[in-house]
Amino acid sequence: IENKIVKRMCHEQVIVVANGQFPGPTIQVTEGDNVIIHVLNNSPYNITLHWHGIYQLFTSWADGVEYITQCGIRNGHKFTYKFKVIGQEGTLFWHAHSFGLRATLHGAFIIHPRNGRYPFPKPYDQVPIILGDWYDSNFLDALEGALVDGGVAVSNAYTINGFPGDLFNCSQSQTFKMKVKHGKTYLLRIINAALNNNLFFKIANHKFTVVATDASYTKPYVTDIIILAAGQTLDVLFKADQPTGSYYMAASPYGVGMPPDLFDGTMTRGIVVYDGHNTRASRPIMPLLPPFFDTPTSFKLFSNLTSLVGAPHWVPVPPNVDEHMFITVGIGLDMCPANVKCVGPLNQKFSANMNNESFVLPKGKGKSILEAFYHKVSGVYTTDFPDNPPTVFDYSNSNLTFNMSLIHSPKSTKVKKLKFNSTVEIVFQNTGVLKAQSHPMHIHGHSFHVLAQGFENYNAVRDKKKFNLVNPQIHNTVAVPAGGWAVIRFQANNPGVWFVHCHVDDHQVWGLATAFVVENGPTPETSLPPPPADLPKC
Predict the structure, then answer these.
(1) Using CA atoms, how far apart are residues 163 and 23, in angstroms rounded to an integer?
(2) Predicted confidence (pLDDT) per residue in 220-251, tens digit
(3) pTM for the structure as a whole
(4) For 449-464, what is each residue's pLDDT tens digit?
(5) What are the φ and ψ backbone dihedral angles of 416, each rounded to 5 degrees?
(6) Which residues, 6 or more positions from 140, have their beta carbon under 8 angstroms from its beta carbon?
(7) Which part of the chain is the Plastocyanin-like domain (predicted)?
(8) Rg (Cα) of the chain, in Å, rounded?
(9) DSSP letter assigned to residue 224
């Protein structure tokens, strides 16, 4: 891991990269592989790397979340991540999980089937498509400033495989191009690595068949447009079945509830070029993308997928629930520090919370939460994260924006303890406080079934009838609809500490997070092993 000078949009920028590459190297494994990754940190920042979506079964020490499972790898130091990839096939990704560094420090993580067979016709080729964003100034400096005044580090462009595309100055040669052969089918492994936005994605005049999401196979779903929440992945089949020519692929944000001055409303595009086409003969055909605030299109795509029953590694919905949780997720405010002009309403800082608790990483405590859990050290975290919000109110009512009893949340490092192998059902309820936004909620160390999604306030009597208990989507990240809710269910079969957070980086930094501490099972084989000898010190 090191600094590198990269030129984008007319000028040079120093960014943090892995193995000299932006995006970082693609890691290709086969299901069942043992993976060993040596990380040497030559950057000036403390670094952790997270293997997003990997179960890390009994290897919580390798999850790579700063202050949650480890402390950062310091400059000049190294750490080896070791884990086994089991029970998963498809596309995931890896990224830094320390102080906003994932803006440039990320890459694809592809898990191939051990028998070489897919539950769909074998594609002619496979192409990773990483959707990201670009900051035209020093992003880490901007983020440090945002932490003080409660602001947002707004990107200047979105990217496809590291390139902003030809809509931007000095970027004609920095446009991703995908060459295809007429009649061939390609597996696009699409990753939303952008820091703060859900993204629409479309290729002009072509259709996609979605076959997997978050490394879990889906029933084939045909659409001409897709959307990925921040942190989600999709595997889609793309057939080059149109007249020989060139066609733009394009991505733009879904930004409902985002203030215009704190929102990147640009578009990135690449080009699909058919073999034999003279690119000078005509301009590529441009797709029509939805408006930034097109909630119906977004919700249709997020809610219509189903899992592929009987596919490799498919698991049925656990029938009996041991733990019920109702968790509100939303934006709030925090008091502005003295002598600072804050950018939020009422000259206050933006904050965020779950069940009115705004999470603070245990910096300066000398140990990560996982180390404190393993060694039974007190004073790093508490286990009183609430199962329900402290106040029942009209959650999705956007007229509550300046209700002061709802807008401020205490800062805490509260986590939730779960018994080994317990089945947990969570209602994530989005709130309308300070305008509802979509919150992509990510749970480390587990995938979960998405039983139902909807708008307004969740009503158990009415909405349980909507539960799909037969073939629901399986995810590690679910986009909780703006002004709505999502219900998930999973089995806590993985001892350790697992971060639970909104994958919009601003919201996570503001406090929209907690952690699940899954207790050990009854045997040494079902318990967390000791930490590795080279675990970084705080």
Answers:
(1) 10
(2) 999 999 999 999 999 999 999 999 999 999 99
(3) 0.97
(4) 999 999 999 999 999 9
(5) -115, 125
(6) 45, 99, 100, 101
(7) 3-115, 126-276, 384-521
(8) 22
(9) S
